[in-house]
Amino acid sequence: QVQLVESGGGLVQAGGSLRLSCAASERTFSSYAMGWFRQAPGKEREFVATISWSGGTTRYTDSVKGRFTISRDNAKNTVYLQMNSLKPEDTAVYYCAASRKSPYGSIWLREYDYWGQGTQVTVSS
Length: 125
Prior knowledge:
It is a single chain. Strand 4 and strand 5 form a beta hairpin. The strands form two sheets. Strands 2, 4, 5, 6, 9, 10 and 11 form a seven-stranded mixed β-sheet that branches. The protein has a four-stranded antiparallel β-sheet with strand order 1-3-8-7, with no helix packed on it. 0% of the residues lie in helices and 47% in strands. It contains no helices and eleven strands. It is mainly β and 125 residues long. The radius of gyration is 13 Å and the shape is globular. The mean pLDDT is 95.
């Protein structure tokens, strides 16, 4: 089974930046689309960003467009989420996920086959 490990979360002031990383154990990582999701206390897990297997296609939820950038380095089996201009409402546990079903990316949780353990991002005001 594919194992995903997120890192890079932490506490940051509003307006600051963080870069999350997600390392995959699977050598065939490049055949999977990757996604980032987040879950705030008392809320449903929501889509944040996705990137196709080749990195040629990306998609973001409206609330992070222009602030977040998803990227991948298939040689390192790693996907990243660069988060700039962070807002308190970005506070959540961030999860990375891998999709075999939808190699060009998906906004839907059900399309993802593997999930990481999550990393906490806290944005203070």
